[in-house]
Write a structure and sequence with these properties.
By secondary structure, the chain is of the alpha/beta class. The strands form 2 sheets. Strands 1-2-3 form a 3-stranded parallel β-sheet, with no helix packed on it. α4 runs parallel beside α5. The chain starts with a helix and ends with a strand.
Length: 169
């Protein structure tokens, strides 16, 4: 995705500055302050969470912003995303059609709209087939490989482990 964004930016006379907030809202705000101080022409961002007061300030100040795969309610910015709820619903429904009834989920950061949407799709698929929502089958990887690996290992060690996993990282 970054490669494609950089290619289009370059074709239009722009340079790309890449910052990784590491899902840390404080780090994200620091980067936003630095970038705004450098008089950037626009911003493409996958925000860390629901609340982004500094980002709202930038938009009100006229900075063009594109939200990538995550949303901020009430922020008048262009959004580019997929239907994460529907995608999760379809993936889990497919696992159910294959005969799985104990489906674990390793979801991404729960404070993001992506995490919320994917969990909602997971839950709807289970409910639609009359399967219970089992809290022992819900783990969070917080969009980190190490945490997802640990969650997977915990599932494997369970006495009554899941027969399938939906990873919404």
């Amino acid at each position: 995705m970054v490669r494609a964004i950089e290619d289009v930016a370059e074709q239009n006379g722009y340079n790309l500055i890449l910052c990784d907030s590491d899902e840390d809202p404080r780090k994200e705000t620091k980067y936003l302050e630095v970038l705004y101080g450098k008089k950037i022409d626009g911003l493409i961002i996958a925000v860390t969470g629901k609340s982004a007061a500094y980002l709202k300030k930038l938009v009100r100040g006229g900075l063009p912003v594109v939200l990538l795969d995550r949303k901020i309610k009430g922020l008048p910015a262009t959004e580019v995303s997929i239907d994460n709820e529907y995608g999760a619903y379809e993936a889990v429904s497919h696992l159910i059609k294959l005969g799985h009834q104990r489906i674990g989920i390793i979801n991404g950061a729960p404070q993001t709209t992506v995490g919320e949407d994917r969990f909602r799709g997971y839950k709807k698929a289970l409910e639609g087939k009359g399967l219970p929502l089992d809290s022992f089958l819900i783990k969070y990887g917080d969009s980190r490989m190490e945490k997802a690996k640990k969650a997977t290992e915990e599932f494997i060690k369970m006495k009554n482990h899941p027969t399938a996993l939906f990873c919404g990282q």
